[in-house]
Design a protein that fits this description.
- The structure is a single chain.
- By secondary structure, the protein is mainly α.
- It is built from seven helices and four strands; from the N terminus they run E-H-H-E-H-H-E-H-H-E-H.
- The strands form two sheets. Strands 1-2 form a two-stranded parallel ribbon.
- Helix 1 packs antiparallel against helix 2 and helix 3 packs antiparallel against helix 4.
């Protein structure tokens, strides 16, 4: 199993990640942000995800295409169909078998952040994060077969149990 993160996971992706999250880049437009994420995602898909899948590995990533729809689409107000097209180009149409959404009201999520170490996106206000949350929930509602929505206000152990119950059926059986 390969666990990785996005943006990142490659030398180019990590460089793009630094630009995206740098608090000194507060003037970045939503379009620039969306295109940088797509560029990092393209490299990540070509260099990490597709080779791992070709080897028969399971790939876990903390984000993928739907993150752009939620953050840049719903959060920034960019056009969803355009974002989908750019990101489908970036991924060659690759889509996860399952997206796990740890759902938490924006205020509760923001309270969990370290106020002294917030990156450029984490410095956005509660209204932005509520739009992102609503976007994720709308995406999940439109495609429930590809989503598992987990109430992240619950204890961590309860969340893990719910996730493993759903993920377990997707995993190949253990060798005997």
């Amino acid at each position: 199993m390969l666990a990785t993160r996005e943006p990142g996971g490659t030398r180019i992706g990590e460089a793009v990640r630094r630009v995206l999250l740098d608090t000194g880049n507060s003037g970045m437009t939503g379009e620039t942000e969306a295109l940088l994420y797509a560029a990092a995602r393209s490299q990540f898909t070509a260099e990490v995800v597709r080779p791992a899948l070709a080897r028969g590995e399971i790939v876990l990533s903390d984000r993928f295409l739907d993150s752009s729809l939620a953050y840049q689409g719903f959060g920034r107000g960019l056009e969803l169909d355009g974002l989908r097209r750019v990101n489908l180009l970036a991924t060659g149409g690759l889509r996860p078998d399952l997206t796990v959404l740890l759902d938490l009201p924006a205020a509760a999520a923001m309270a969990r952040l370290n106020p002294d170490r917030r990156d450029r996106l984490e410095q956005e206000g509660a209204a932005f994060f509520e739009r992102v949350r609503r976007g994720y929930l709308e995406l999940a509602s439109a495609d429930p077969g590809h989503y598992l929505v987990v109430n992240a206000e619950r204890e961590a152990e309860a969340c893990v149990s719910v996730i493993w119950a759903r993920v377990g059926v997707l995993l190949p059986p253990e060798p005997v």
